[in-house]
Amino acid sequence: MSLTLQRVARTLRSFRWIAFLSVFVLAGVAFATGVGTSERPALASDPWIAWIYYAGGLFVFGGLDLGVPTGGSAAGRGMLWLAYFLAPTLTTTAVAEAFLKLVRPQWFKRRSSGHMVVVGGGPIGRIYLNAIRSLDPEVPVLLADEVDRSEELTDVETVRLSGAGEDALAPLHLEGALGLVVVTDDDLANLELAWSAQSGAPDLPIAVHVGDLALLRPVERAAKGHTVPKGFNTRQVTASYLYQIHLALHFEATEARDIVVLAGFGRFAQTILELLLKEAGAELAAVVVVDPEATLHLRRFKADVGDTSVPILGLDLDLDDPGTWEAVGTQVSSIEGTPIYLLCESDELVNLRAGLVLRRESEQPRIFLRCFHRSPFLQSLGKEQRFELLAFETVLREALREHYHEFFRSNRGERS
Prior knowledge:
By secondary structure, the protein is an alpha/beta fold. Helices cover 55% and strands 15% of the residues. A 6-stranded parallel sheet has the order 5-4-3-6-7-8, sandwiched between helices. It has a 6-stranded parallel sheet with strand order 11-10-9-12-13-14, with helices on both faces. α4 (123-135) crosses α14 and α8 (234-253) crosses α14 (392-415). The radius of gyration is 31 Å and the shape is elongated. Mean pLDDT is 83; it is low at 1-6 and 105-111.
């Protein structure tokens, strides 16, 4: 549906609610002030429940069963006349909106080329949608999800996704699409849908989100040298953006090799470490991982990534224990290099407390602090304590903009 039609539909819904309440208010006030009708002149003396009944009947009969307003004041008769007109207008708008909903698939089908398709209406899908909108505001976007998103997302065409295989793909009109992004929360469903789409539209650029890095790696290997959907991971995209914007410049500026301290070793930190080993291995003197289960997580990490030439030390310590950072400082001081701290725990309060302890101990090292939002409080505190904030949502928005630009926009000319 075009944006014009969507605005019309929203206006109709708002007007209908106002008209609905106004009909009962206007009719009730008119009856209360002594207004009757030609068919029921004594209506003003009826109980209020009868007034509600007759006011409700205006939506169906428009006052034809009651006759014209009589008696009472001129203002009261005017209010009842207004209710007579509003009620059928409300009914008409409801029918018009139902018609718009009915013709939406056919409308889009007539204009089913030159559009981007996003499958998945969760947080990642919406951020990717915003990335498309910010770079290509004129490109139509079709968002498909198992949940009906039409009420939530009124500025984009939405489709309810159901079934599997060709039945699910048919409403997406991929034959004329510019690209397909699959970003639901189910990795396996994402891959199956992306591969089905590729078989039906072999030249269509397809990006599929895979949250599990262990599953993503074979997908990336399969994509080398073949026209298959390209897997991506938001943590990888965000880590890559972080590296390019912040860390690469830091490593270039420091003469000595760097000691990277990773506090918290969840999926995000593991993704950063994998990228650091790949892009800046020669710049690293060592990596120190601080996590209550650092040893276990490192065993799993090395099983997936393999051995590295960079020494990686694991410290099984609680990030919330102030004594942890004394032990980390002792470990770091035994290694020749420039320390840099990446506080990557998912709980930003834990990161904040750890950063405050670290800053009390030393004014020298750079401290990157992961948070979700770049709130005014965190910005103020970060400026005072010289923390460099890694606002995950902000970084993800920029990273997905970059992903969309590189994967879809840069290849659009080649495809055409």
